Amino acid sequence: MLRVAVPNKGALSESASAMLSEAGYRQRRDSRELVMVDPDNDIEFFFLRPRDIAVYVGSGTLDVGLTGRDLFLDAQVEAEELMSLGFGASTFRFAGPVGEFGSLEELNGKRVATSYDGLLRDYLAERGVDASVVRLDGAVESSVRLGVADAIADVVETGTTLRAAGMEIFGEPILKSEAVLIGRKGASPAGLDVLKRRLKGVLVARQYVMMDYDVRKELVEEAAALTPGLESPTVSPLRDSDWVAVRSMIKKSDTNRIMDELYDLGARAILVSTIHACRI
Questions:
Q1: Could you give the 3-state DSSP secondary structure of residue 18?
Q2: Cα distances (angstroms) measured from residue 30 to each of 1, 35, 36, 66, 74
Q3: What is the pTM for the complete model shown?
């Protein structure tokens, strides 16, 4: 069986399980379950702390895992990113007391607190910045006020927590993170290709919708330019030989704009339906 690590709690947990469920895999109903077997798909899921997933995959104990890119890079293990999963986006950035820092170079000789010490050490070393890294498990915003550090490096979403602590962001983003599928370098376990194909199908199904509409024959080329599909739209004859039915996949974000443009062109009976699963 393919052995897959899944976050057991935290921001990534619910979205990871939802994606796997959409991909056709069984998921646990009780949050206390640590292992779940899906015999129909020849796969076994292990629910682990998100920070530990990269360690298990890197050591070869488990085949693949779903975790954050930041957690994966911080673990510094023999694994590789196989694909991004389209959820759990975040940005890893520097922050310090308001007016104290303006650039990365100003961290030379300073102390920087973070929960991602491996990732941060690599980043500073690559840029020739000589700063001390203070490893904390959480609440790094308090480290400056308590005198443990001069600045911090942490995941930033809205920045509200930082402002409340009298801090501001400075410098370029260290890393833009999101949920990713990781696997051991060079390994290709049975079932991995199917898993990747299914997850890609979920991503496409979430990003696209199916659009159907009727249009006069002489307008097909103009209509098809608006809805080219992935390869080409499907065009079918109607009882009225002057009209045809067109079916095409379009980006969900473009739905209303394309509907308006088709209507202005002369298309009618424009319908949109969701895509629950697909293989591209």
A1: helix
A2: 22, 11, 10, 19, 30
A3: 0.86
